[in-house]
Amino acid sequence: MGEVFAGRYELIDPIGRGGAGAVWRAWDHRRRRYVAAKVLLQSDAHTLLRFVREQALRIDHPHVLAPASWAADDDKVLFTMDLVGGGSLGHVIGDYGPLPPRFVCTLLDQLLSGLAAVHAEGVVHRDIKPANILMEATGTGRPHLRLSDFGISMRKGEPRLTETDYVVGTPGYFAPEQLLGAEPDFPADLFAVGLVALYLLQGRKPDSRALVEHFLAHGTPDAPEGVPAPLWGVIAGLLQPDPQNRFRTATGARKALAEAVELLPPPAPDEDPVEVFDQLGPLPPGFGPQGPPGPPAAAPRGPAAEAPAPQAPGSVTVPAEAVRTDPRGTARTASQEPVTPVTPVTPVTPVTPVTPVTPVATVTPVAAPPTPAAPYPAGSASPAIPAQGPAYGPAYGPSETGSFHLPPPTAPTAPVPAAPVGPPVRAGGRIAPPPAKAVASLLAAALLCFAVGVWALTQL
């Protein structure tokens, strides 16, 4: 198994390498699918800032391969994208050489469609080249390309991460204004698209400097060998050295390309179809189409899966009984503890209070005899045994599981409240007089009230 990154992405095998990071085939344990993971190789602030810019790009388009998610683990950072298995345009040219014009027009239309979506977000790619244009493994079906690698792309108006006289990109695919230090703009991407078109039609990297010099010295040249004239008109419009004379938008170039396709001759009868092969290779051992094998299934839990506990010699285990509810509403369950068998004895009349005992499977309940089998100890009286009322339902005895229930104890009698304490009573039934101190206090209070009343009357 590979290294699991941030608890989610399992790195499997490397499938590519760029200037800032290595690309791995990885398994996403959360979404349960294979993805391409670009792992940052350097950790300096400048490279990390570019890495953050790239992973922040979110463009949803069928011909754009933009980052989908990212993760960090200690000092490592990665972001993921869809896994594309057909390799790049370089692989296709390596397999077939120059491609048929109509096949090239299909690829150019998809590339301009994706680039129009990128430009609509205000982003300049700045590094369009065959190695950054990936292909789905469609076999002999309709090709499907994806524009990828936005490592040095930037939005118009954002601050640049390089000096104004420092050119970023791939030599051979620079627009003339880029070499002069101009601000990145959309026509520079379109110039690179024109160079990619020549590469697909001729099967080799074009000499961009010689083309620019020829355009500047002699104007638009004639169509090169192997390039149809209608298609060359579109490509020449992409390769104009002056950005003001170039196509200004990818949508405009796409419309011109659609018109040129109508003028192309039909394909030759013996023209072989172009097949886009799977370039990723087989998965390493331990991985399948559905990912790595999952964790082993948990063992089933329950009585059937549990091994019986060892028992002591000569012991008997009473099987567990389902929970029952007796007529009083209390739950009772037979215990499941090993007990030692005893010799059956004559049952005695239970006494109150009843002490719970461990049920024994070999005891056979019988009706209690009128007289006890064994007398009580000398000097002790036999306690009274309350009779069971009909409220308890049927008599308690052995259950269908072999357990034995003792009769429930008699409900305790409610305590009788004590009689309220009344005033003290003399012998003979008369009420006793109050204490002398209480009488003196009452008389003093009465005299005080009388004096206040007399004084009030004299004031009238």
Automatic annotation (TrEMBL):
Entry EC number(s): 2.7.11.1
Keywords: ATP-binding, Kinase, Membrane, Nucleotide-binding, Serine/threonine-protein kinase, Transferase, Transmembrane, Transmembrane helix
Location of region: Disordered: 264-356
Regions of compositional bias (Low complexity) in chain numbering: 299-314, 338-356
Transmembrane segments: 438-457
Biased composition (Pro residues): 282-298
Pfam families (UniProt xref): Pkinase
Record SUPFAM superfamilies: Protein kinase-like (PK-like)
Keyword Transmembrane attributed: yes
SMART domains (alphabetical): S_TKc
Location of the Protein kinase domain: 9-264
Listed InterPro entries: Kinase-like_dom_sf, Prot_kinase_dom, Ser/Thr_kinase_AS
Record protein name field: non-specific serine/threonine protein kinase
Native source organism of the sequence: Streptomyces spororaveus
